[in-house]
Amino acid sequence: MAASLDGFIARKDGRVDWMETSDDFPGGDTMDPGFVEAFLKTIDCYVMGSRTYETALRFEAQGFAWPYGDKPVFVLTTRDLPRTRNTVQFHSGDLAQFVNGRLRPTFRSIWIVGGGMVSGECLRLGLADEVRYSILPVLIGEGIPFFEKLDRDIALHLAEVKAYKNGMIELRYEVQGHRGTGGSPLDRAAIRTAERL
Questions:
Q1: Which fold, 2-8+23-191?
Q2: Which single residue of 48, 95, 107, 144 could bond 52 by disulfide (Cβ 3.0 to 4.6 Å)?
């Protein structure tokens, strides 16, 4: 998910209006739709918190397309939320057991969509092997942080940097020294965030 330069994924009330920036960096790459489409095909399922799910439903009600296509979507929540499509399933309980026991045996590429609490918990539990962080050219001062309540340092290795014509910088990090509970690390898990759980 994209974040502001000062590390926020949304305003405190969940708004993301600041993501529409007007910067121009002539030396940057163009976001190729073909590349994006090919990348999305590599994702086998999505995991998100309840507020991220509610944000996706609001965008859809405003006329935007459902961003997750026909891929399975797992929503982490204890609340009773509307289920608008058959691809959505709800889960509450132990996150490590859910990822390692249920998702990992079935899905190769698990994309953690967010929000900040989910992302932080995945890092604390050693469930992620990759972090993708897209920084937009804006400072918003306060809001929901990209990763919430980390209780220790998480060592990362910078694997890739891309700059785009709209001024966005995309960083791809590999998480160092992680091991998911009960086995080897996920073949591929990435953390992106949109809203708080």
A1: Dihydrofolate Reductase, subunit A (3.40.430)
A2: 48
